[in-house]
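Researcher: I'd like a structural prediction for the single chain below. Treat it as a standalone chain; there are no partners to consider.
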Amino acid sequence: MESAAIKSFSDPDESKTPPKTNAATVKLGDIAITKVELEPGWKWSECVKPLVGGNSCQAGHVGVVVQGSIHVVQDDGTEVRANVGDAYYFGPGHDGWIVGEETFIGYEFSQDSKDFGPWKTAER
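Model: Treating it as a single chain, here is the predicted structure.
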């Protein structure tokens, strides 16, 4: 990787747009950074599950909330809500949904760029 690099989310390396979702990913070396925008009414089990299958989201997420709020329930019953200014980790095996009427904007970071963003194809 170069000693300095800049990439724009307006010209991402990859983008995904399931219902109520806009995810733009830029890659800097082996790091993937995804700007995730989730509209009010978004729920993983309704918007993403039909595309990837499985009973719950099998991706892990590490990020920070810059707008809105998201509620997540892990398969083990653990519940958390991430709000503006919060850093978060959601382990594999969860459902999540947007709280309120404000679009959620978060930035997620991953070294394993093939499994980033708010979805991962279920292992079959």
